[in-house]
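Handover notes (outgoing to incoming on-call)

Open items:
1. Flavohemoprotein: sequence verified, structure written out, both below. Nothing else pending on this one.
2. Nothing else urgent.
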Amino acid sequence: MTALTADQMARVKATAPVFAEHGATITKHFYKRMFAAHPELKNIFNQTHQQSGSQPETLARAVYAYAANIDNLGALGGAVTHIAHKHASLNIRPEHYPIVGRHLLGAVVDVLGDAVDQPTLDAWAVAYEQLANIMIGTEAKLYEGASWSGFRPFKVMRKQVESDEITSFYLAPADGASAGGFEPGQYVSVTRFVDKLGVDQPRQYSLSDAPHGKWLRISVKREAGRGEAQPGHVSNLMHDGVEEGAVVHVSAPMGEFTLDRKKTTPVVLMSGGVGITPMKSMLSTLIAERSKREVTFVHACRNAKVHAFRDFLRHAVSEYPNVKRAVFYEEVGASDRQGVDYDFEGRIDIGRIEADVLLPDADYYLCGPVAFMREQREALVARGVDASRIHTEIFGSGML
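Flavohemoprotein structure tokens:
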């Protein structure tokens, strides 16, 4: 690998403001250009994110961050790990990186033209090679530790409705072998052919059970589409087109948002909506391991109709003295029983549950909409919780 010279590093860093201003234009053109030359890559990239513009915008931010920190790549450590897990779950391989690099640099030339000179382009070529090697090396370690390679056929052995929006799928390996292990909090990618798009589409779903090797369980929210948001292609296919006995193709579990099972200190699990799925896996694992750790399960949802795993949580609290809960309903129905179905009306307010969540040396796991996680994180930090003990899961675009 060619090393970046001091001049090249300075040139890359100097282009960071350009990506701040023109990055989304460049990355949108990049995807259009790459898909025209390699239409088979549409099977890897989320086409809904392409249409909404979220994928190009995320890539633009990633390129900006890389350029701005080219002289201090240690600052990108968390982002590199996060993206590597996403890549590995999508089966991104070393041969994909030269394709991306060629069309990304080509898009820079197409959009900026004479505004970028050849020495700067040469610097970016070396910088991209450096980044590609970092990603390839990180992903290689993930593949080495994975339970299997690529997408593996699983048979749907059971389909269970959890709420008006969420349905669980119990997936057993089609070959009858072990389903393998995973860390609670991890996710898998499931790929389905979408007729409307004419391509396979992967989607990532958190595992929602404890690891035991017999099956994997994912719990899928039907994305009906609201406002400007389009209905979810794959989630609707899963709900309406995948029945018991069907075969789906699944990646090995990935994800760095995982429960630290070695600790004995308290755990606070905070979720909003479908963000409950990895929390269900974490709590199920603690119960299966007969952990004595103090656990507080905090969950928010719109109403009882969309409250998944309600019976499970109620049973866990009644059977295990170390497990507490705080369930918030934005809309309380006439038949909803406070203390049984829910605990508080309204949105999560940590001020109302401080005694149960502000625990010495606790670790906090947050999953839900980005605004929800940001709000809870800020509320915890404001009350003296060390940010290093707050862990979040963010799904979405992250492809380099």
